[in-house]
Amino acid sequence: xxxxxxxxxxxxxxxxxxxxxxxxxxxxxxxxxxxxxxxxxxxxxxxxxxxxxxxxxxxxxxxxxxxxxxxxxxxxxxxxxxxxxxxxxxxxxxxxxxxxxxxxxxxxxxxxxxxxxxxxxxxxxxxxxxxxxxxxxxxxxxx
Length: 143
What we know:
Layout: H1 9-17, H2 23-39, H3 44-47, H4 58-73, H5 77-84, H6 89-101, H7 122-142
Helix pairs in contact: 2-4, 2-6, 4-7, 5-7
C-alpha cells in the first residue's frame, strides 16, 4: 500500500476481525480477481455487464493470483505471501469469501469455499512460477 492509496474501512474491519491476514493480502486477492478476469477475457468490457459471465473459478483465481504475484514480486513472492499470512490455497479462499461478505467481491451460486481447498502447494507454485519466468526469459535471450 503506497502513501497515496485510500484505506478501505471494510478491509480494515476484516483485519480487525481476523488478524491472520494483512491488509495487503485482501487488496492483492481483489486485484488478482480483476487480473484473472482480464487474462481469461472476462472483464466487463469483454463480456457486458452480466456478472456470471465474468465469474472465475477457485482454481482459475489461484492460478491467476500466482501469476500476478510472480509478475509483481518475482522470487520474493513466497516471502511476501508468507508475510501477509497467505500460506495455503484455503487462505486465499477464506479471503475471497470475506471480501464477498463485505461486498467487495460478488458470488455466484456455484461458488463454495471448498473450491479453494488444498488445490496445490501455494508456495511451491510461486517458486515454480518464478523459475518458469526465468527459463522463458533465458530462451528469449538465446534467439
